[in-house]
UniProtKB/TrEMBL annotation:
Residues 10-416 form the FAD-dependent oxidoreductase 2 FAD-binding domain. The lineage of its organism: Bacteria, Pseudomonadati, Thermodesulfobacteriota, Desulfobacteria, Desulfobacterales. This is Glycerol-3-phosphate dehydrogenase. Pfam families: FAD_binding_2. Its EC number is 1.1.5.3. One of its GO terms (cellular component) is glycerol-3-phosphate dehydrogenase (FAD) complex. One of its GO terms (molecular function) is glycerol-3-phosphate dehydrogenase (quinone) activity. Keywords: Flavoprotein, FMN, Oxidoreductase. InterPro entries: FAD-dep_OxRdtase_2_FAD-bd (IPR003953), FAD/NAD-bd_sf (IPR036188), G3P_DH_GlpB_su (IPR009158).
Amino acid sequence: MNLNNSTDYDCLIIGGGLSGLACGITCLAEGLSCAILSSGMSALHFSSGSVDLLGYFPEATVVPDPFDALPRFIDMHSEHPYARCGIDTIKEALAFFRQEMARAGLPLHENCSRNHFHVTALGTLKPTFFSQRSVFNQEIRSVIDHTPAITIMNIQGFRDFHPGLAAANLKRHKLFSACDIQCAEMHLPEKEKNPSPVHAMRSIDIARIFDTMDPDEMARLIRTACPDADIVGLPAVLGIERHNAVLDRLRQKTGKIIYEVPTLPPSMPGMRLDNALKSRFAAMGGVFIQRETVEKGTIANGRVTAIRTKNQNDTLTAGFYVLSTGSFFSGGLVSRFDQIAEPVFNLALARSPEARCLGSENFFAPGGHAFLSAGVITDDTFHPKTPAGETVENLFCTGAVLSGYDPVNQGCGGGVAVATGYVTGRRIARGIYSATRQRQDYPDLP
């Protein structure tokens, strides 16, 4: 897309990941004009495709019911983004997000407002709140309660999935200790014309085959390889666009529950979530600008006046700006030799000691690593501050660029991304409608 100096939006979002898209969809739902600038591949392509809310508290203790734990958690973590959102708004955000993903063709399932486990690529169990149907649904839950026979099956030659390792770790968990867990292999149907041998394929290559093939032959191979299994765990490659149809057909033809187990990246469930978010954003009228990096933002008198892009060297303006660039992985924070920094606006960070002090020598340190909670300092409404302590009134920060939380050790990355994106979109709408007096019924926010 050609950018130009006359382009002006109600809201301009920097970052096209989970939080930026959640914010953008919220803005569009409120009738605002919105554009997103994305520098490249979203971190969702490396994620499980599930949305965590609160997985661990206190410390490494698994949380069964996040909403039961949240009041105490917020009392003990007053600087956490959840404390600034409020529990009722978190609930609204999750309901809105689930509704919009269903409209985009990606229904998300939850366990009666409680956490459920999803199986990782290593066969460990991780608590999460929303998952795609191939990872969690009520049928899977009811079968697991009756010690099913499980087969974890790979596609012969596929190198990015290791069923033996997954099965061994799964057997160690008390939920599956009484289950009969086996491993098996099957080959891709020979009638599928594959341009490359399977051992050279990544998950996305096999998923594209599933998108175009007739799943009946695959169902026959599954029945032959594991006739006695109640649940069959397959690598998460059951298509990108047609995964629900493929899942339904395999379930119907095999009589077994088909469960997707994550592979090494790229993650197909993560890509599906990314595609659904972008599809919904576009369908609602949003402008998504790919492969465009914001080089610098200009702040004057406590307000962002413009941002400059790197590739086309254009200057863009908007009423409000949202920084949703993520943490170190996505380049939202950068680590230099002696410090860390936020590269677009040079905002104040909650942790800015020497970079070498941000990690523990023990990779599996119980308390985690300090860099995981590094991020931008904001006020209670997610307006950031400059190094001089000045609040930037028309700039918000959402998601992993924020300080005050540890997405890994608290198991809350997806929930923070969705909640802060949602509440920020609503605050922007309230600010615009309040200024123009076009809308008087906008509800109060915390």
